[in-house]
Design brief:
Layout (H helix, E strand, L loop, with lengths): L2 H13 L20 E7 L2 H4 L1 H14 E13 L8 H9 L9 H10 L2 E8 L1 H17 L1 H5 L4 H20 L3 E9 L16
Helix pairs in contact: 3-5, 6-8
């Protein structure tokens, strides 16, 4: 997402002696080439929107080996929730071009690209706690923030994160993590979730 994030990850890998096992690249996913056993994607749903989901999953499917796994983590919206004033505020001031999709959009697009869903988990209560923690940290560092951004920007993000926490708490926003694999009758699947925790 940013140069500073990539540098942080590179430093963390070096500290843990893993820098020779992991390559960190600052690039758009659409420029990736090669074949991968595993891919993890965090926070793409929000930036793709419904109309680009199928192309996204198709591109990733071409990168994954036949036995590979794809972990996809993103914010969604329940089917019963529609756009309101808060949506337009977000699209104008926080995430221009962003759109929250429904779980059904994700499942359909992934399946159309040749994936099957191995596991799905809604982490909504966990993310509500995360957003609350971000609000508290942002609030307690208001003076430091003022050194980097305008007061209006700070207040926008404080309001956004507080609204996110409330939205996750009340259930009008979800965050799903899907484990996907290419659909194939030849693939042996685990019969329990025990393998995920070992």
């Amino acid at each position: 997402m940013s140069h500073s994030q990539a540098e942080f990850i590179r430093a963390t890998l070096a500290d843990r002696g893993l820098h020779n096992r992991v390559h960190v690249s600052e690039t758009d996913f659409q420029t990736l080439q090669g074949r991968f056993d595993k891919i993890a994607s965090v926070g793409m749903f929000e930036h793709l929107g419904r109309r680009r989901l199928k192309a996204y999953f198709s591109y990733i499917a071409n990168l994954i080996t036949d036995e590979g796994l794809f972990l996809n983590h993103g914010i969604t919206r329940p089917q019963t929730v529609t756009d309101g004033a808060e949506t337009y505020f977000l699209q104008k001031h926080v995430f221009p071009g962003g759109e929250l999709v429904h779980v059904s959009d994700v499942c359909r697009s992934a399946e159309e690209a040749g994936f099957e869903i191995i596991d799905a988990e809604n982490m909504r209560p966990h993310y509500a706690l995360t957003c609350r923690a971000w609000v508290n940290r942002l609030h307690s560092n208001a003076d430091k923030c003022a050194q980097f951004v305008a007061r209006q920007t700070y207040r926008t993000w404080l309001l956004y994160l507080a609204a996110c926490a409330a939205s996750f708490e009340e259930g009008s926003t979800d965050i799903y993590q899907f484990l996907l694999a290419k659909r194939s009758p030849r693939q042996r699947r685990h019969l329990t979730r025990k393998y995920m925790y070992s």
